[in-house]
Design goal:
5 strands; alpha+beta; globular; 25% helix; YaeB-like fold; 89 residues; five-stranded mixed beta sheet
């Protein structure tokens, strides 16, 4: 499985989250995709994977799969409870 990241994720989202005090790395994003706590689908039918960061926050990764490639569209930090109504693994 190959994971590619949009420039939006690498140049905007990761630095923005780091500036806010969150240590979001490509490794953490990959770990979330491979072993999510929750999975879901956005309104526009993109896949989501979520993992816990702490008691009150989660990392949400929005991505698309095509063949053997996963393309990470965006990531963001969400408060727990916001997206947890999706399927739990």
């Amino acid at each position: 499985m190959k994971i590619v990241y949009t420039s939006h994720v690498l140049k905007e989202k990761i630095p923005k989250e780091k500036a806010l005090g969150w240590d979001i790395t490509k490794s953490k994003i990959k770990q979330t995709i491979v072993n999510p706590k929750w999975k879901g689908v956005t309104r526009s039918k993109q896949s989501t994977a979520m993992s816990l960061l702490d008691k009150g926050h989660m990392l949400r990764v929005i991505f698309e799969k095509e063949g053997g490639i996963i393309r990470v569209i965006t990531v963001h930090i969400a408060r727990r409870g916001t997206y947890e109504s999706t399927k739990e693994d």
